[in-house]
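Reviewers of the previous submission asked for a worked example of the structure-prediction workflow described in the proposal, so we include one complete record here. The input consisted solely of the amino acid sequence. No template or homolog information was supplied to the procedure at any stage.
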Amino acid sequence: MVVNPVSTVYRGARRLSGFFIRGLILWDVRSTLAVIFTYFTENRKLKALPALRKGFADHRAEFRPADEKYRGIFPRLIDAYTRAKADQAGVPGPYRVGIMWQREIDSHCGELAAVLRDGDADKLRALMDNFHREKISLGLQGNSEWANIQRPFYKYLYVNTWYAFYRIYEELAGKQPPLQYPMVGNPAGLYHDGRVIPFHAIRYHYSAREMLNLLGETGHPVVAEIGSGLGGQAHALLANAERPVTYLCLDIPEVLIVASYFLMAALPEKKFLLYGEAPPDAANFQQYDVILMPNFVLPQLGEQSVDLFFNNSSFSEMDSETVREYLRQIERIGRGYFLHINHNTAFNWREDGREFHNLPGTQVVPDPTVFKKLYQYHWPLNTLPEELYYKGAGFLAFLYEKRRPGPPEMKG
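From that input alone, the workflow returned the following structure tokens.
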């Protein structure tokens, strides 16, 4: 076989140019041009690129925790994770981690899991100090922005998204968003008034405002988030609450460790309950500000013990049977509202020879005899990738309210 060196060089050049072009183009040419046009016509005047560069710089030196109490976080995290993993092995099917998600955990959280299994508090501290920029936060609204910012045009999209969210919040709430986010775990975002503000933080504060409005005058409400991710939503609600609130975070053990660290480091004045330290008894809820439990604890919660259940972006990513089980528990445990924000795209996948499917957002519906639907609307704080990926719709918001027992029927 005769190799044509000119042809070989040509094919190599095409591959290299393909990689280069894919690095430049965000999704497609039209979207990329739209991002650039929006930046130069609407946001260039804000001169935000220096603030973005500063926000994506290393900020670990700016986080100076009270050392003694801070060091005490890590043994608690290791103990809670060890207990959760031991108990996770025997949980019922709907609470097990599927093969697809287990691959994600193995890919993104392998180093974290190894450090936790070894019980190495020093290595755990080093990993957590930078978790927003490590693989462990992929899919948790952290590392993906850090990874994407390396693409030449992504900085324009980030600025566009940040200011779009800011304006939407201001328009809908009638005031500027409360721009605050902890400098825990080396976050990346726009540098604003001496702190780093990821655009996700504006979403957290918008949802926090909506939830606190729903809770009204409830004396000491209990909020439960299924799929709490890195804990950003919990932080935003607690930071905006003007009265005591108990926030219950439920997630798989690896993710829960990230949220536990983030919240304990950011809110050292709060009282925390981790898995295995005490039973998640409704009678004790008000003794704690934040309760962090693995997802399989949900059936242990008492009836009508939670004022508001919340889920953002994960119910429509789960197997339908798992979501149906969660809905049954929400019907039993909830005593107020169920608010969820999810996409409406259906998809299927196979594991171990079985086919599974998700529930699009419009099908994530509790029993209508137990909860009544109050509203459904297009979630205003969608990013361009979310709009493109979910067929131009992005995410939808749904609110349900627990029905109150009616008067007894009159007997004739």
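The CA atoms of residues 349 and 356 lie 5 Å apart. We consider this example representative of the routine output the project will generate in years two and three.
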